[in-house]
Amino acid sequence: MTSTPLLNAPSLPHAEPTQGATVEDLLHLLHDRNRALALENEQLLAQYEELENFINYKEAIIAWQQRLICLGGEHVKLLETVVRGQPAEMLQPTKLPSQEVRPEFRPRGRWMLSEYQPESEDDVYSLYY
User: Fold this and answer.
1) Where are the alpha helices (DSSP H) in 18-94?
2) In whole angstroms, what is the distance from residue 58 CA to residue 43 CA?
3) For the whole prediction, is pTM greater than 0.90?
């Protein structure tokens, strides 16, 4: 987003009609003033749209952050309930039968993660990045 000054004061020519001004002079003055106002209106509209997009983006980020905070709180409550309700030796992961595991979550490739022996520290990081 480009930085634009907020709430610019109108920069209209302040030409006062003189006593001897003709209708044609007044018509030109009004036409020039109309053109200046239309140009300023276009600039303000562009600034408004830019600010509106920025605000919508920030509101979307805040909504997602609030949702993630709520989900994190629920997760902590569930973990506390599980830890309080079971002794430490009973906190073993439950194996699901393979037919109940959806295909997209089944391990692929020639090796299982539990069987993986990294040759270097870089190999370990490559699993996560």
Assistant:
1) 23-85
2) 23
3) no
